[in-house]
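Regression test case RT-17, inverse folding.

Input:
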């Protein structure tokens, strides 16, 4: 929703060093709400910076503007139709004005004006966008095991990755298939079913406007990291734990786990989780720790030993119990049925280019967080 995929052919250009760049055929994305309609034969201005550097952008150039044809004139800029005065991607050429669910022009403003409590709603916090469908799979599976109705799940998308929710096929498909009930984009992120200013108002809107049973907080696709202790966008996961706890929710910290990542800092529990939950989160969260004994066979095609991985994860998790917030570790045995539930995901499960075959623990760790969140529901 909100994105249009194009095939574009570039012109021959001269680069800054004087060399000639031959025409190329590229995949490009246009966001019609930002650049207007696009038709076959149009000339477009492209941003190819991330594509040129080979970064993980999904292999797309991005349309900055649709250029007028010879027989057209540039239309005057117009204010967006309808109410709303929240400006997101502020003071950039593509800043966009939206109606915030919490602002004065919203029909829900009065509900949220003095809202201050999540009434114990479980809030699952994750570092990576790729954890989202696995968390929801675990939640849906456990509700079925307990004989409960499917929980109403709202995704609160933060702005550490992609700003437009339209960039995420995951968001669109989860919504279309009923796996999520709504997406709220917060901070500088936009394009969700609803907009909010902060994680706090996003969570309060999920509970009091959308009647969510649980919320999942994670950045959009496009995690940013520099290989340093603090230079990564997922550090905001610790702040989301603080927000959920401050508002009277039940934070559940989903661990970023891998047995296959070639980088030592991400094997076992990633340093992203250890830092965000161990140093940034100053209020307590439940930390589900996956037990893998019952699903060793799921690692048959992986190049690592699940038993050794489990030992490593448990040892690392103990540091979170000793952190300033003194998190509560919750041992959750992964059952074959829970592992099977991951295969029911309507979107492809992939993290850093690895799927459930190459790195099953990454998704199992997220699934047990969703399972535990459902166990907290009254």
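Golden output:
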């Amino acid at each position: 929703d909100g994105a249009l995929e194009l095939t574009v052919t570039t012109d021959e250009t001269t680069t800054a060093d004087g060399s000639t760049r031959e025409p190329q055929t590229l995949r490009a994305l246009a966001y019609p709400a930002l650049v207007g309609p696009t038709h076959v034969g149009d000339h477009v201005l492209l941003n190819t910076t991330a594509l040129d550097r080979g970064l993980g952008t999904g292999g797309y150039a991005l349309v900055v503007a649709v250029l007028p044809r010879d027989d057209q004139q540039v239309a005057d800029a117009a204010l967006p139709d309808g109410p709303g005065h929240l400006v997101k991607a502020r003071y950039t050429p593509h800043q966009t004005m939206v109606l915030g669910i919490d602002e004065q022009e919203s029909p829900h403003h009065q509900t949220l004006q003095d809202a201050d409590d999540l009434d114990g709603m479980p809030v699952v916090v994750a570092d990576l966008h790729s954890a989202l469908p696995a968390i929801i799979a675990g939640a849906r599976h456990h509700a079925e095991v307990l004989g409960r109705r499917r929980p109403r799940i709202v995704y609160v998308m933060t702005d550490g990755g992609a700003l437009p929710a339209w960039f995420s096929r995951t968001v669109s498909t989860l919504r279309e298939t009923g796996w999520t009930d709504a997406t709220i984009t917060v901070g500088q992120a936009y394009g969700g079913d609803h907009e909010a200013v902060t994680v706090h108002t996003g969570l309060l809107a999920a509970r009091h406007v959308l009647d969510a049973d649980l919320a999942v907080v994670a950045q959009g696709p496009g995690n940013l990291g520099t290989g340093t202790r603090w230079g990564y966008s997922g550090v905001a996961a610790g702040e989301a734990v603080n927000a959920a706890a401050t508002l009277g929710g039940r934070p559940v910290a989903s661990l970023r786990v891998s047995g296959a990542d070639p980088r030592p800092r991400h094997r076992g529990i990633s340093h992203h989780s250890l830092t965000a939950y161990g140093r940034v989160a100053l209020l307590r969260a439940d930390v589900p720790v996956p037990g893998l004994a019952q699903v060793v066979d799921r690692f048959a095609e992986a190049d690592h030993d699940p038993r050794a991985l489990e030992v490593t994860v448990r040892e690392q998790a103990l540091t979170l119990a000793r952190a300033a917030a003194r998190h509560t570790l919750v041992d959750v045995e992964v059952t074959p049925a829970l592992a099977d539930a991951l295969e029911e995901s309507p979107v492809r499960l992939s993290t850093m280019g690895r799927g459930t075959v190459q790195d099953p623990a990454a998704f199992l760790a997220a699934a047990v967080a969703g399972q535990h969140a459902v166990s907290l529901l009254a």
